[in-house]
Amino acid sequence: MENYIQQITNLRQQKDQDVASNSLHWINLVGLFPLKDGENTFGSDENNDIILPQFPNPLCGSFIVQDSEVTLQPKAEIKIDFRGNPLKTDASDEADLINIASLAMKIIIRGGRPMLRIWDREAEQKNHFTGFHYYPIKPEYKVTAKFVRYDSPKPIIITEVIGTQVEKFLLGEAQFTLNGHSCTLIAEKKWRQ
Q1: What's the sign of the alpha-carbon dihedral 12, 14, 15, 21?
Q2: CB 167 within 8 A of CB 157
Q3: Which one of 48, 54, 79, 119 is most buried, counting C-beta atoms within 10 A?
């Protein structure tokens, strides 16, 4: 049982280290903005469509949405690192990462619409992160499960916390008994990060 406790402890430590070392983790997330058709200005000024105090200038540029493509038009004097237009979204395996000051931005597609996800590499919550708070390890909850794979992946529509609906696929289920009760955990196909 000591091996089991050590294994869980090691997994928790690895998770904490992964979060601490990843500047694009959820803990660094500072914004998610829907992009409308046409121009979407961004900067620190309140007159922009996308406003964050971390932007280095009152107006840093614009994202233009036209015909299902998103292009970036930075202000001439603003240093923004990106590969070029049109921007590749997370629908591609090579989504463009746009860097400006401490911010990293990416165009994501949710519910068929483009959105701008923004991380801050110097986010306050990340700077004070010392690890997650975990429940005590209880060896009596260690179970052996039987995985039953579905003949083919089952589609399911899930409403995300931001209100968009996405299609996911269920691969099968883990069946086990805990404290005399039959339990099932359904396995979802892992989506690329």
Answers
A1: positive
A2: yes
A3: 119
Check whether residue 117 and residue 154 sit in a common domain: no
Name residue 59's amino acid: L
In a domain, 88, yes or no: yes
Structure tokens given for 124: 């306050």
Clarify whether residues 59 and 98 are in a common domain. yes
> What confidence category does residue 193 fall into, taking pLDDT thresholds of 50, 70 and 90?
very low
What CATH number does the domain containing 123 carry? 2.60.200
User: What are the DSSP calls for 33-80, one per residue?
Assistant: EEPPSEEEEEESSTTSSEE-TTSSSS--EEEEEETTEEEEEE-TTS--
92 and 44: one domain?
Answer: yes
Write the pLDDT tens digit of every residue in 75-127. Answer: 988 889 998 899 999 988 899 999 999 999 999 998 889 999 999 999 999 98
Both 167 and 113 in one domain: the answer is no
Q: DSSP letter at 91?
A: T
Residue with tokens 């904490």: 16
Length of the chain in terms of residues written: 193
Bridge partners, residue 186, by sequence: 173
Residue found under tokens 């008994």: 177
Residue range of the domain that includes 55: 14-127
User: Is residue 52 domain-shared with residue 120, that is, in the same domain?
Assistant: yes
- Asked whether the bond before 155 is cis by omega within 30 degrees of 0, the reply is no
For residue 81, what is the DSSP state?
Answer: B
- Decide: residue 61, CB within 10 A, 0-12 exposed, 13-18 middle, 19+ buried: buried
